[in-house]
Write a structure and sequence with these properties.
heterodimer; A: 257 residues; alpha/beta; Rossmann fold; six-stranded mixed sheet; 10 helices; 36% helix; globular; B: 259 residues; mainly alpha; 9 helices; 86% helix; binds adenosine-5'-diphosphate; binds magnesium ion
Chain lengths: 257, 259
């Protein structure tokens, strides 16, 4: 059996008395694109942050390439993160740097490449997401949300990561730009055979970019399976979510969302 | 809840804060002395902290020196014999030992500490610090260490310049307003300038540079809750750095000059 790229076993995380993750199990196989769906505030971002080491789970096991990554040292984490790219929900571009310096950041600061060597690679990745050299010299503050997400995508893939994470890549942008982003995600993951883990509540996006979908509800993965089987999933929670119905088993925690 | 419980709880959260700040300080120091160094960033921060603070510090110490000369003259004018010597001594001593470092420290706390807290705080709440981590870059190395290194190295230079300008301020008032003999005044200034005083001032400067940049980084790094949280971090950085500067100033003075 092949080792999963990412594997979560019984991961729990609470903030104070609020239980956010209550035993999450998930596997992402090599080259596979997995999407986690779930309502706002269901803990999707927390799951990602636990895998990235930005949050420490209270209990459970997280492995990347078969190596346990919970509670490892900063320098080990840097090694692991060198295999990883992440597109943040708000892009999280460095606003003190130009667009190309953002795209080149993982190469220069993370991998110690010289600026002259990193620049052409950054420009190439920016071209891949449809941004030309003129835009490469601008600062993030001058860009629209959709453009910023594309720069964030270029930055995430610049180091040719083996695993790429996308946090709500299509939220907050118009459907056409959303579709462009979806296509870019598919291109970036398929072409490089990278494994992808995306979180979203946009079902159209989820269908387009995923091989496998997992639904997070009340701190657990309530259903996981191949994308083409989600419409026939026998889980009422999944059915309610993908059909966007107000009536059903999902309890809305309006105070939390 | 009883009063005892309230006090106990306050005390515990105070201890927790002290522990958190101590840990942050130790991690920061460990990154300031270990490779790799981002020289480009250190250079940029030295410009930001040192060079751009020069006008403010020049103005503050200039007027401090001027008012010192003026006030000590009013105090000593009854026995005008040898007033040059006394006034020059007061100006030189107060500027190099106390006013130069403290005024410059407070000015830098207001100008630099606040901007560090706002910048790093904004990076925290917009996930830019998380992004650094995912790009295999340690935020302490990339954000905190360059600022602290720049603060510790540039503040002594700033304060040395401030000392000179402060003494010059005293000279301007003594010579052009009070009509003292310029040569005599300069000579007694020089006679009253002791290496020990200047060195104490520079030690203070380095310590204040550390405190200001550390507090800015700490408040920014730990800020949360959007724009409001960044605002609070900015205020806290200035207040905590200013208080620490005044306390440490006393302690260092007591250490060097206490009997
Ligand atoms: N650092 C934190 N401190 C306290 N609570 C948090 C923190 N991060 C997330 N939460 C809480 O965890 C819950 C899940 O958040 P999140 O994972 O961001 O949701 P989403 O599924 O929309 O991405 C929310 O109720 C949020 O308030
Ligand atoms: Mg989220």
């Amino acid at each position: 059996m092949t080792t999963p790229k990412i594997s979560l076993r019984n991961v729990t995380k609470s903030f104070g008395r609020k239980v956010v993750l209550d035993g999450v199990d998930l596997d992402v196989m090599p080259g596979e694109s997995v999407v986690i769906i779930g309502g706002s505030g269901s803990g999707k971002s927390v799951t990602l942050k636990c895998i990235l080491g930005l949050l420490t789970p209270d209990s459970g096991e997280i492995e990347i390439d078969g190596e346990s990554v919970v509670g490892i040292s900063d320098s080990d984490r840097e090694h692991i993160n060198a295999k990883i790219g992440m597109l943040f929900q708000s892009a999280a571009l460095f606003d003190s740097l130009t667009v190309w310096e953002n795209a080149a950041f993982g190469l220069i600061a993370g991998k110690g490449m010289s600026r002259t060597a990193a620049r052409p690679i950054a420009l190439e990745k920016l071209a891949l997401v449809g941004l030309d050299e003129k835009i490469a010299m601008m600062t993030p503050a001058d860009l629209s949300v959709g453009m910023r997400k594309r720069v964030g995508l270029a930055r995430a893939v610049a180091t040719d990561p083996e695993i790429i994470f996308f946090d709500e890549p299509t939220t907050g942008i118009d459907p056409i730009m959303g579709d462009i982003i979806n296509e870019l995600i598919v291109d970036c993951t398929r072409e490089t055979h990278a494994s992808g883990l995306t979180i979203t509540h946009d079902m159209a996006s989820a269908r387009k970019i995923s091989d496998k979908i997992a639904m997070l509800y009340k701190g657990k993965i309530v259903w996981a399976g191949p994308t083409e089987e989600i419409d026939t999933a026998d889980s009422p929670i999944v059915q309610q979510f993908i059909n966007g119905q107000a009536e059903g088993p999902i309890e809305l925690d309006i105070s939390a969302a | 809840m009883s009063a005892v419980q309230t006090v106990g709880r306050l005390f515990l959260s105070f201890l927790e804060l002290v522990g958190e700040v101590t840990l942050f300080t130790l991690v920061s120091i460990s990154h300031c002395v270990r490779r790799p160094f981002y020289f480009r960033l250190i250079g940029r921060q030295m410009m930001e902290i040192g060079y751009y603070s020069l006008p403010v510090i020049a103005l503050t110490t200039l007027f401090a020196g001027m008012v010192l000369a003026l006030q000590s003259y009013t105090g000593f004018q009854r026995n005008a014999v040898g007033a040059e010597g006394v006034i020059a001594e007061i100006v030189v001593l107060s500027i190099t030992r106390e006013l130069g470092p403290v005024l410059a420290g407070l000015m830098v706390a207001a100008r630099v500490g606040s901007s560090i807290a706002a910048e790093i705080g904004t990076m925290r709440v917009t996930e830019q610090i998380d992004a650094l981590v995912t790009l295999s870059t340690n935020p302490f190395k990339y954000l905190v260490a360059p600022r602290i290194i720049a603060g510790v190295t540039t503040l002594p230079i700033l304060i040395l310049i401030g000392d000179i300008i402060g003494v010059l301020g005293g000279y301007i008032v003594a010579v052009y307003k009070l009509g003292f003999n310029p040569t005599l005044y300069l000579k007694s200034s020089w006679d009253n300038l002791f290496l020990e005083d200047v060195v104490t001032g520079l030690v203070k400067a380095a310590v204040f540079g550390f405190v200001v940049t550390l507090m800015g980084c700490y408040q920014g790094y730990t800020s949360r809750g959007g724009a409001q949280g960044v605002g609070a971090a900015t205020i806290n950085s200035v207040v905590s750095a200013s208080i620490l500067i005044l306390i440490l100033n006393y302690l260092i003075s007591a250490m060097f000059f206490g009997t």
